[in-house]
Sequence to fold (201 residues):
Amino acid sequence: MIGFLRGRLTAKQPPQLVIDVGGVGYEVEAPLPVFFDLPPAGSEITLFTQLIVREDAHILFGFRTERERRLFRELLKVSNVGPKLALALLSGMTVDNFLRCIESEDVDTLVRTPGVGRKTAERLVVEMRDRVKGFGEFGATPITGHGTAQPAIGPQAEAFGALIALGYKPAEVTRLLKGVDASVQTTEELIRRALQAAAAK
Fold:
């Protein structure tokens, strides 16, 4: 099992990033909040990881804190919840917000996450109710460092691709991004604003 990675960030295109660890490039999928905190490419970062083994692939998922990884692992134990849906839930809300949804049985908020229908939301509430009790705090892994940014495609295109990867339909993504103030120029803030708008609808 790969518990964490510490290395140089070489690429970041939500929901995937690449970390160079001793000359080996690890592709890691991560929730969108991870990308909000990432330093420029070339910086050293540390992420907690979870390896998912499938018949056709081995996929690494990365998290800022042990607490996020723990919730990801607990979500995978819920019937019909796979890594993609768990990643979408962690991208659309914080750990604390998710725990509040479970404790208050707030199905309406959960169904705003792409891929989460009412039945799945109700199942999450039922199956996670006992698991979230005593869900303790864990220390955060700082994502810090300095380096030279390596711009690729524009922020709008990057945000569009990240939201599509989360399960939003192209027309919905276009509408959400059009609603973001034109002064917003970074991918992270575009995604953040779009998710806030989606959650508020």
The chain has a mean pLDDT of 84. The longest helix spans residues 187-200. The beta strands are 4-13, 16-21, 24-29, 44-53, 58-63. The chain has three domains: 4-63, 66-128, 155-200.
